[in-house]
C-alpha cells in the first residue's frame, strides 16, 4: 500500500470517528422518537362506554342530519392515537365503532350495543396546529370527535340474526399470576366467553387476589375491552371472582350452569404412566343433543400451571359432573392452555 493511500485511509477513519462523536446517540442527546418504539394496540373496532356519550339524538325525524350520538376523545387517549398513527384518518373519514354491552348492568342503556361501520371522524386541533389531520409524524393534532350516524347505517346488536351473539362457552380459571392474568384477559375476550369465573385453588397463592387488577375494576374492564376491540365484538363477559372454590361448586354452580343446559369439562394433564385412553375435547358428550334444537353450552375449568391438586380437587369436580379432558402429557402455561381449550370448546359447540 502506498504512502498516499495510507494517509487518505487514516483521514477517512478520523472523519468517521469525529462524525460518530458528534452524533446525538454518542453525545447522550435525546434522539427522535421512533414510530414503532412501542407496541400499538390493533383495534378492529373502536369501542366506547355509554357513559362517554356527549350528545345524543335518538329521534331521526327531528333532525336527520344530526348524528345519533357523538363521542369526544382527548389527544392522549389510546383510541385517538390509534386513529391517528395506525389508521391515519382525516376529517370525514369512516371507521368501525360500537358501544360496549355489560351484561352485569341492572338497566341496559338505550345506546348499549350500537354497531356501525360508518362512524365519522372530526379532528379538533389545539395549540399551534392548524390542520385538522394527523401530523407528519403520525401524532394526533388534538382531540377527536366521533359521530355515530342514524339507522340504517347504525344498528343494535340485538337486531342481528346471528346465533353467535352470546358465546356458548364459559371459563372457570384458577387464578394465574397477575402479570399472566393481564395477558390472558384480552385473549379470553377475543375468543369470546359468556361467563368468566376466576377462582382459588390449592396451588394458587392467596396474595394473587390482592393484584391491582382487582383493586381497580377499570383495569380489568380495560383489558377485556382491549380484546373485544381486536375481535370486533361488543359484549363483555360476566366476571365472577370467588376465593372459595368448594363453596362455589356446591352453592352456585348449578344455578349458573344447570346440568341439563351446559356440559361441564375439567382440563388436566395426562400422566405418562396412565394407560387409560385419554379423553379429548371432541369426545365430550352433550346430553342436550337429544333435545332437538337446543344449542350446546359448555363450561371449561382450567387449573394452575401445575394442574389441579390430585386427587382432592379432581374428585371434587368429578362429583359435580365434570368430564375430564386433556391436551396431552405436556404441562402448558395457563395462557397457552386457555387459548387452546377455548378454541376447541367453540369448535365442538358449533356442531
Explain how this protein is built.
There is one protein chain. By secondary structure, the protein is an alpha/beta fold. Helices cover 29% and strands 19% of the residues. It has ten helices and 13 strands. Strands 1, 2, 3, 4, 5, 6 and 7 form a seven-stranded mixed beta sheet that branches. A six-stranded parallel beta sheet has the order 10-9-8-12-11-13, sandwiched between helices. Helix 4 (178-191) links the parallel strand 8 (169-174) and strand 9 (195-199). Helix 4 (178-191) packs parallel to helix 6 (217-231). The longest helix is centred in the first third of the chain and has 20 residues, at 3-22. The model is unreliable at 19-40 (pLDDT under 50).
Structural class: alpha/beta
Q: H/E order of the elements?
A: HHEEEHEEEEEHEHHEHHEEHEH
Radius of gyration: 27 Å
| Average of per-residue pLDDT values | 83
User: What shape does the CA trace take?
Assistant: elongated
Give a short overview.
By secondary structure, the chain is α/β, with parallel strands linked by helices. Helices cover 29% and strands 19% of the residues. The chain has 10 helices and 13 strands.
What are the SSEs and their pairings?
Layout: H1 3-22, H2 24-27, E1 46-48, E2 55-56, E3 69-73, H3 78-87, E4 94-99, E5 114-125, E6 142-148, E7 154-156, E8 169-174, H4 178-191, E9 195-199, H5 212-215, H6 217-231, E10 238-242, H7 245-251, H8 253-256, E11 263-267, E12 298-302, H9 312-319, E13 323-325, H10 334-349
Parallel strand pairs: 1-4, 8-9, 8-12, 9-10, 11-12, 11-13
Antiparallel strand pairs: 2-3, 3-6, 4-5, 5-6, 5-7
Helix pairs in contact: 4-6, 4-10
Amino acid at each position: 500500500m502506498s504512502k498516499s493511500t495510507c494517509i487518505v485511509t487514516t483521514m477517512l477513519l478520523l472523519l468517521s470517528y469525529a462524525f460518530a462523536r458528534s452524533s446525538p446517540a454518542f453525545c447522550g442527546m435525546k434522539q427522535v422518537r421512533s414510530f414503532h418504539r412501542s407496541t400499538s394496540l390493533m383495534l378492529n373496532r373502536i369501542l366506547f362506554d355509554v357513559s362517554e356519550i356527549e350528545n345524543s339524538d335518538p329521534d331521526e325525524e327531528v333532525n336527520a342530519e344530526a348524528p345519533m350520538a357523538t363521542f369526544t376523545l382527548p389527544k392522549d387517549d389510546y383510541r385517538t392515537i390509534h386513529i391517528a398513527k395506525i389508521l391515519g384518518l382525516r376529517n370525514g373519514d369512516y371507521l368501525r365503532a360500537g358501544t360496549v354491552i355489560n351484561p352485569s348492568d341492572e338497566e341496559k342503556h338505550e345506546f348499549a350495543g350500537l354497531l356501525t361501520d360508518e362512524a365519522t371522524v372530526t379532528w379538533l386541533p389545539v395549540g399551534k396546529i392548524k390542520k385538522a389531520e394527523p401530523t407528519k409524524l403520525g401524532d394526533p393534532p388534538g382531540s377527536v370527535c366521533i359521530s355515530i350516524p342514524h339507522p340504517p347505517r347504525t344498528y343494535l346488536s340485538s337486531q342481528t340474526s346471528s346465533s353467535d351473539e352470546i358465546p356458548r362457552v364459559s371459563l372457570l380459571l384458577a387464578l394465574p399470576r397477575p402479570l399472566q392474568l393481564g395477558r390472558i384477559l384480552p385473549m379470553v375476550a377475543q375468543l369470546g366467553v359468556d361467563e368468566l369465573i376466576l377462582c382459588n385453588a390449592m396451588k394458587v397463592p392467596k396474595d394473587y387476589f390482592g393484584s391491582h387488577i382487582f383493586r381497580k375494576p377499570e383495569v380489568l374492564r380495560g383489558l377485556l375491552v382491549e380484546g373485544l376491540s381486536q375481535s370486533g365484538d361488543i359484549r363483555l363477559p360476566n366476571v365472577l371472582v370467588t376465593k372459595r372454590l368448594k363453596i362455589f361448586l356446591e352453592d352456585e354452580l348449578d344455578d349458573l350452569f344447570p346440568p341439563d343446559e351446559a356440559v361441564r369439562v375439567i382440563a388436566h394433564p395426562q400422566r405418562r404412566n396412565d394407560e387409560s385412553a385419554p379423553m379429548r375435547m371432541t369426545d365430550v358428550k352433550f346430553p342436550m343433543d337429544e333435545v332437538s334444537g337446543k344449542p350446546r353450552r359448555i363450561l371449561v375449568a382450567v387449573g394452575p400451571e401445575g394442574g389441579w391438586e390430585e386427587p382432592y380437587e379432581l374428585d371434587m369436580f368429578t362429583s359435580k359432573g365434570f368430564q375430564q379432558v386433556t391436551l396431552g402429557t405436556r404441562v402448558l402455561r395457563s395462557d397457552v392452555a386457555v387459548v387452546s381449550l377455548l378454541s376447541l370448546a367453540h369448535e365442538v359447540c358449533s356442531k
